[in-house]
Design brief:
four-stranded mixed sheet, globular, 7 helices, alpha/beta, two-stranded parallel sheet
């Protein structure tokens, strides 16, 4: 691989994007509402990447991502990631996420505890919010303490955690909707 490249590819949830460099994948972008927005996002993040046919190892990663998004059980743990410039703590968080089995979830606190950083729940959440390797680093499997399954990160496009977990066959989360959250803090209505 010479220089950075990117490619747009079809999946069951829409057209995704992937960018790579000489050391491996630098980012995966899940679909935005329109393909042009997915392309724009890739260009903003990786302005030096050029659209090209992916090399074989990137093609294999694309096939694995597409299979995962169809509900298949694809092993993406061997996919090479270029973590140049990613803080060491975030790298540890991403490696932890790659060990979570398909269809299972963990909380941010459980992730922090597994990393022997039990007071770092907020830092774990921040690392996941910056995850550039969607699906390969399955940050959608790590939820807030209340198991809220909402938007993932900017790289998650318009796809929600709830949808990704549903594709993987995870049990429905106890996630609250906005209505549920507001109902619990709303003052009671006066009786007629």
């Amino acid at each position: 691989m010479a220089g950075r490249g990117y490619s747009i590819f079809d999946t069951a949830i829409g057209r995704c994007g992937i960018a790579w460099g000489e050391l491996g994948i630098v980012g995966v972008q899940l679909p935005e509402p329109r393909e042009i927005e997915t392309r724009k996002r890739l260009f903003q993040i990786y302005p030096d990447a050029r659209e090209m046919r992916p090399p074989d190892e990137i093609g294999a990663a694309i096939e694995g991502i597409a299979a995962t998004l169809r509900g298949g059980d694809s092993d993406l743990t061997g996919v090479a990631l270029d973590m140049t410039g990613i803080p060491a703590f975030n790298q540890r968080v991403y490696e932890f996420a790659r060990t979570i089995p398909r269809g299972e979830t963990r909380s941010y606190a459980e992730a922090a505890s597994a990393l022997r950083a039990s007071g770092a729940t907020y830092s774990v959440a921040q690392a996941f919010s910056r995850n550039p390797f969607m699906i390969i680093v399955p940050c959608h499997r790590v939820l807030e303490a209340g198991h809220y399954a909402d938007r993932i990160s900017p790289h998650g496009g318009s796809v929600s955690r709830r949808r990704l977990l549903s594709i993987e066959g995870a049990p429905p989360s106890a996630s609250k909707t906005l209505f549920d959250a507001l109902l619990s803090v709303a003052p009671p209505r006066p009786s007629p």
